[in-house]
Amino acid sequence: AKEPVRVLVTGAAGQIGYALVPMIARGIMLGADQPVILHMLDIPFAAEALNGVKMELVDAAFPLLKGVVATTDVVEACTGVNVAVMVGGFPRKEGMERKDVMSKNVSIYKSQASALEQHAAPNCKVLVVANPANTNALILKEFAPSIPAKNITCLTRLDHNRALGQISERLSVQVSDVKNVIIWGNHSSTQYPDVNHATVGDKPVRELVKDDEWLNGEFITTVQQRGAAIIKARKLSSALSAASAACDHIRDWVLGTPEGLWVSMGVYSDGSYNVPAGVIYSFPVTCKNGEWTIVQGLAIDEFSRKKLDLTGAELTEEKELAYSCLS
Ligand code: NAX
User: Which residues are in the Lactate/malate dehydrogenase N-terminal domain (predicted)?
Assistant: First the structure.
């Protein structure tokens, strides 16, 4: 039998946490033959709710779940973890300045970076979900210098899956038949959902949709603003789709992407496609042997170029804002 993998979920008493931990315990993240030990962290204010989640995990009697650590102690939470899914953060509240929210998250991610660096298992893979996801991941990277930069990523798979979903609905085809959309840049409303290389079967999506106006307009804004549409409808932000996307992200990263298929991940930019280096930027990637590689050589037209630059500029600006919170 395989050794259990230790998976940390921060913010585990929250909405996404509640959807995510049962998925992990059922093997949806790491495979149906992979035992797991869940480490769940939240803040003291949520300790009782966190304990309730632990009780439900016990009650669900998941065969793959070999242990549960539920704690408000960041060192205990991080000790020995192989995978860390960072869902906990400080949400933007009405009337709050952007800088104030950034400042709260910078201090959370700075301290959790140190705890992971000192106590996580070697080669721990980190996925940041909490917003601002790209910049939280960047702060985590900066303050955990001994964790390889390639091990620190952020979630844009939800946006990627939303783009697949929109194309599937529009063409009335199975979502699993839509391939190779791309989310470029920031997990924010400046992200660029790109279908220029996407296919259904062996046909380009653009040829099948036959409506460039929709693809260059409403399709993009629908994906960019899907989070707000969910909040409007549910009075709560996306949770099950975010949890599912987090599982997709880690599964593909650890177990590999199928031949010919790429996915979107926020990764430490090397300046590929002439986007800013040194920020966490979402790119198309393939994964093999537990490592991602940016898909190279895709043609970028003028329309796309502007959008890649715009979301890149926002990330540079966020990075500066985050740094200004440090001093
Ligand atoms: P909730 O507010 O339901 O849960 C967040 C949890 O984090 C709470 O239980 C809170 O007590 C905890 N927390 C706060 N500070 C913490 C700390 N320092 N250490 C540990 N835990 C801490 O939010 P939820 O709806 O679950 O969303 C979580 C995060 O995901 C938010 O930042 C949200 O903006 C972000 N999202 C990111 C998405 C993405 O695609 N990257 C999509 C979904 C989601 O909006």
Answer: 5-152
